[in-house]
Amino acid sequence: MSLPRLIVAAGKEKALQRHHPWLFSGAVARIEGQPEEGDLVEVCTADGHWMATGHYQSGTIACKVLSFDTRTIDREFFRHRIRSAIAYRERMGFFAMPTTNVFRLIHAEGDFLPGLVADWYNGILVLQAHSMGMHRIFPLLAQLMQEELTPYGLKAIFDKSSATLNLPAADGYLWGIEPAEWEFTEWGNRMAVNFFEGQKTGFFIDQRDNRQLVADLAQGHIVLNCFGYTGGFSLGALRGEARYVETVDISRKAIALCEKNVALNFGPNAPHRGVVADVLSYLDASNRQFDFIILDPPAFAKNHRNLHQGLKGYRTINQRAIAMLPPGGLLMTFSCSQAVSTDDFRTMLFTSAALAKRQVRIVRTLPHAADHPVSIYHPEGEYLKGLLLEVE
């Protein structure tokens, strides 16, 4: 039985010819057949030449491409892709890290499985679908994960897709043990995670290496961790013997879990305070002197339509942080907005420094960790932009 076909408008084939894994709806001249959300479809040129096979979806992206080869998209196709992702993590040493047992196992386009994220939390695998096509085959993917990951100590598989797909069904376990809360370790720090309530898949795994950098730099510093969530950067600072750490987040639940994580690792008398507050309001009102500030905000610009407003938000918080740092102070600042380019991010920081009337050095660029690989054909996958700055 033939698949429905998306016919690309003449002159709109170049991105697919360069193996970009997204076909935008504006490039589709017509649809042959009646595909439903998540169905497999073929992508063809205007003269009928086959180009790719992928998952159909409504919206801006009409198809997320699974293959540019004429192979069958079946059980063995997905097994091959999963095995490739596992082998990459093995080569990079993620299954054998002595003080860390959390990492990304499948990074969507970076592992040639667009629409699928899978994170490993000390034996529990959290699946998150960013396309209906992937979510519809979760039973198959869960079976394959059991077969391929049992030798590595797989204990459970959790589906956390309700927020990313706006599903009526709740998140929940697909297989294995079903703990309400789970514990993992990152750089020697023990952390509790609630998969039902946590953001993303439960934790922001992409910042792992940057949290270790905080530990390397924190000794003797007074650290402010803004948008601190459950305290990953704060634990890094305390592990690095910071003199004092303050974590600010607007979520009361996040701060409660942060304080629990601090006590779990450093006892009830650790030099740390959790603050439930809006970050900008806190920065405007704070009279405490910090010499190391971390800004890891949510995506202020979720798409190009609100890029201008998002950059304004980034500029405001960075200007305030730069202005309040003493000479020699450090700012670790990030944007996780895919719509914000590296040039946008640097220009925003240039403007923030100029408005704060401070001299600023770029010390280091701060990408996401190596378990978040980027397909060379999909530069949008390099979503995390970060810089370590020193303020004169």
Question: Any overview of this molecule?
Answer:
The protein is of the alpha/beta class. The chain folds into three domains: 5-67, Roll (Archaeosine Trna-guanine Transglycosylase, Chain: A, domain 4); 75-193, 2-Layer Sandwich (Transcription Regulator spoIIAA), CATH 3.30.750.80; 205-391, 3-Layer(aba) Sandwich (Rossmann fold). Helix content is 29%, strand content 28%. It contains eleven helices and 20 strands. The chain has helices at residues 14-17, 75-91, 132-136, 138-149, 162-165, 208-217, 232-239, 252-266, 279-285, 307-324, 342-356; strands spanning 5-8, 22-24, 28-32, 40-44, 50-56, 61-67, 102-107, 116-121, 124-129, 156-159, 172-176, 182-186, 189-193, 222-226, 244-249, 272-276, 292-295, 329-335, 360-365, 385-391. A seven-stranded mixed sheet has the order 16-15-14-17-18-20-19, with helices on both faces. Helix 7 (232-239) runs parallel beside helix 8 (252-266). The longest helix has 18 residues, at 307-324. The protein is globular, with a radius of gyration of 22 Å.
- N/C terminus separation: 67 Å
Tally of separate helices: 11
Kindly report the average pLDDT value: 95
CATH superfamily annotation of the largest domain = Vaccinia Virus protein VP39
Strand order of the largest sheet: 16-15-14-17-18-20-19
Beta strand count? 20
Tell me what the CATH architecture of the largest domain is: 3-Layer(aba) Sandwich
